[in-house]
Write a structure and sequence with these properties.
Helices cover 76% and strands 0% of the residues. By secondary structure, the chain is mostly helical. The chain has one domain. α3 packs antiparallel against α4, α3 runs antiparallel to α8 and α8 packs parallel to α11. 45% of the residues are buried.
Length: 265
């Protein structure tokens, strides 16, 4: 009995530490109001393991918007409303990265030129075209999926696509010497990657409640292709990744998941 108290206190302290890291990750990836206490560089570096967890939070909120909207409007309009809600919740965080990556990779002809364009905050032609296509594909795919299945699909898509970005952190090389992505590029270990993948896997398995296993497998294949194709583009040009590339992978993985599901339903 005497030994159980330190162990219990240790578990409580560990759980409290993980909640602080989750709050920091949520504040980093969204505009949701979160406590500002407890931020340290070490905790910031540990946040990637909770990116899929933040995706769950975003997915639940977006799914609620979709569910309410379907009581008033057709599915496509409900999908548009839920997508707009997601943009507001995240502050277009990932979409901004995707647009910058499109500008840099589309407009640049060399590694150095691409990195310089991606650093520029102004939106170019490739960024506008890319955003139009990715947001349009997202809305149209969600609008074509069975309305009763979309809420769980949204939750899974937001969680799994952020796990896709975590995989890039774990398996590629961050190539800038500064920037918001520098601390998080060094803080993800095997356990952190395992936790991120576990959260994403549980979210994906929940889709089986509303869709057959063949459709889920199609969604996973689509997510994989979205991940792989974007990585093929930026790693060939940049020989690594930047924070913008993480946003780009999240977007293409999410859209790939929806399109893969839709193709197999």
């Amino acid at each position: 009995m005497k030994r159980s108290k330190p162990r219990r206190h240790g578990l409580v302290a560990r759980a409290r530490e993980e909640m602080i890291i989750l709050a920091i990750a949520t504040a980093f990836l969204t505009r949701l109001p979160m406590p500002r206490r407890g931020w340290t560089l070490r905790r910031m570096a540990a946040t990637p393991r909770w990116y899929p967890g933040v995706g769950l939070i975003i997915g639940v909120l977006v799914a609620l918007f979709y569910w309410v909207a379907t009581a008033l409007y057709p599915p496509v309009l409900a999908a548009l409303i839920s997508t707009a809600a997601g943009l507001l919740i995240t502050g277009c965080f990932h979409e901004d990265g995707f647009a910058d990556a499109c500008d840099g990779l589309g407009g640049g002809t060399s590694r150095r030129e691409s990195l310089e364009i991606m650093r520029d905050s102004r939106l170019g032609t490739f960024g506008v075209a890319g955003l139009f296509l990715v947001l349009g594909a997202k809305v149209l795919a969600l609008g074509a999926l069975p309305p009763h299945a979309v809420p769980l699909i949204l939750i899974a898509g937001h969680a799994a696509s952020r796990a896709s970005a975590v995989v890039v952190i774990a398996t590629s090389r961050y190539i800038r010497f500064e920037g918001a992505g520098r601390p998080i590029a060094q803080g993800l270990g095997r356990r952190g990657l395992g936790l991120a993948l576990l959260v994403a896997a549980l979210a994906l398995l929940a889709v089986l409640c509303v869709a057959p296993i063949l459709a889920l497998l199609g969604g996973i294949v689509g997510l994989f292709f979205g991940h792989a194709l974007m990585r093929l583009v930026f790693e060939r040009r940049l020989r690594g990744y930047t924070g913008d590339c993480l946003g780009a992978v999240q977007q293409t993985s999410e859209v790939g998941f929806y399109l893969g599901l839709l193709a197999c339903l």
